[in-house]
Design goal:
The protein is 47% helix and 17% strand. The protein is α/β, with parallel strands linked by helices and 425 residues long. It folds into two domains: 134 residues, Leucine Dehydrogenase, chain A, domain 1 (Rossmann fold, 3-Layer(aba) Sandwich), CATH 3.40.50; 164 residues, NAD(P)-binding Rossmann-like Domain (Rossmann fold). α1 crosses α15, α4 crosses α5 and α14 packs across α15. Bound molecules: nicotinamide-adenine-dinucleotide.
């Protein structure tokens, strides 16, 4: 299998939409180049007293529509090309939902699961000091992503406040409530995806009870999605995390409340999780992540990492809908095959935009010194997601194209205006 560079995938996706709408070549050229690429050394004193230096990144892709915005990822496979792609996707995503941000993303190449809690805190604070000169509430506002948590956001906000000499909660979002976080941020990504899926289900006149679902990745995005879908009557038949996957062999469907509880118990006990015999006894069979992607389901929800649905396996995907909670789970080759097979991809830059939308609400509350309740947050989120879905669906019909290209077209209209204004073209 060849290595797929996610930034090249992001540019191919842009190219497809650009051709269809005859995009001004100047706009296209601007969007192909991140505005700033910051690479930093992240020194950390480990528990044994030794100093280790990790590699960190912050890519600021485009700021024509507002401050750079996007998460921070701590993952052993994180590299510059991944962060560049994630930053570009943030630019299109914020434009798709019409929130006043540009796109950025950051990360550290590290296996953070191997760190002690004290080392993780020192790493997060060291990274905050390293990127402090480049971020700020009106410049660049990070957030959580894979293997980063509200607690890590709180450490970064605190350290940034120390470096700059004044508390600035609006420098980062996804904070715990007591550190200036927003109601609903923890469930926002999945909630936004749920609104998008519901919009599409209505268009197709399909009912939740008819739909079997497989979810890849059981973190912030995937586990909350499992709960929302289960509560709405969808049947979850397969789930996975980095350790492996489980398939329901009964006809009952999986109960996410039970999965979450067991995951916590097993994690606390420090034992094996997905391969635990509990599941086998209860009618759950262990399968591979590759098998999960090809499971006999109606909806596949990739909620882990990039490059999962590719030219190598797209022919064997059985789902009718791919709901992309992860960023970049489908490669352009995978997309082509899915489109030919009339499988609808509800694309990342629309489907997972609920997270950044509630991050925007958090930032807005911090900037204005306000606190909104959960109902306010979700009413606003639902409207933004429904409007974005309607605009993307309309572009899909108008240009007779797939939903991803339609989402790019919708984003490009807003981006073109902002870029023209910024450069005075
Ligand atoms: P997380 O750290 O909470 O969870 C990641 C999950 O993926 C974990 O369950 C992990 O075990 C699993 N995983 C890792 N490697 C895997 C593999 N090879 N196969 C299967 N599962 C694997 O992260 P998250 O915040 O849920 O992010 C997941 C995806 O959603 C990422 O692509 C992220 O960029 C995207 N996303 C997240 C947010 C957000 O607000 N958290 C917003 C938009 C998009």
């Amino acid at each position: 299998m060849t290595t797929i560079n996610p930034f090249e995938s992001a540019l191919k996706q842009l190219e497809k939409a650009a051709k269809l709408v005859n995009l001004d070549p100047k706009i296209n050229e601007i969007l192909r180049h991140p505005e700033h690429i910051v690479q930093v050394a992240v020194p950390v004193i480990m528990d044994d007293g030794a100093l280790k230096v990790f590699e960190g990144y912050r890519v600021q892709h485009n700021s024509a529509r507002g401050p750079y915005k996007g998460g921070l990822r701590f993952h052993p496979q994180t590299d510059l090309n991944e962060v560049k792609a994630l930053a570009a996707w943030m630019t299109w995503k914020c434009a798709v939902v019409g929130i006043p941000y540009g796109g950025g993303k950051g990360g550290i190449t590290i296996d953070s699961k191997k760190l002690s809690p004290a080392e993780l805190e020192r790493l997060s604070r060291s990274f905050a000091r390293a990127i402090a000169p480049f971020i700020g509430p009106t410049v660049d506002v990070p957030a959580p992503d894979v293997y980063t948590t509200p607690q890590i956001m709180a450490w970064i906000a605190d350290e940034y406040g120390k470096v700059t000499g004044k508390p600035s909660p609006a420098v980062i979002t996804g904070k715990p409530l007591e550190a200036g976080g927003s109601q609903g941020r923890d469930t926002a990504t999945a909630q936004g995806g749920f609104y998008v899926l519901s919009g599409f289900m209505q268009k197709m006149n399909w009912q939740p009870a008819q739909m079997k679902v497989a979810i890849q990745g059981y973190g912030n995005a995937g586990s909350v999605m499992a709960q929302l879908l289960h509560a709405a009557g969808y049947k979850i038949v397969a789930v996975s995390d980095s350790k492996g996957a489980l398939l329901d062999t009964t006809s009952a469907g999986m109960n996410p409340a039970h999965l979450a509880k067991t995951k916590k118990e097993k994690t606390f006990a420090g034992g094996e999780y997905w391969n635990g015999s509990v599941y086998v006894r209860e009618g759950y069979k262990t399968i591979t992540n590759a098998e999960l992607l090809e499971a006999d389901v109606d909806i596949l929800v990739p909620a882990a990492l990039e490059n999962q649905i590719t030219g190598d396996n797209a022919e064997r995907i059985k789902a009718k809908i791919v709901l992309e909670l992860a960023n970049g789970p489908t490669t352009p080759e995978g997309d082509e095959i899915l489109a030919r097979r009339q499988i609808t991809v509800l694309p990342d830059i629309l489907a997972n935009a609920g997270g950044v939308t509630v991050s925007y609400f958090e930032w807005d509350q911090n900037m204005k010194g306000e606190t909104w309740d959960k109902a306010q947050v979700f009413t606003k989120l639902e409207k933004i997601m429904n409007d974005a879905f309607a605009a993307v669906y309309a572009a899909k019909e108008k240009y007779n194209t797939d939903m991803r290209t339609a989402a790019y077209i919708s984003a490009l209209e807003r981006l073109s205006q902002a870029i023209n204004k910024k450069y005075g073209w």
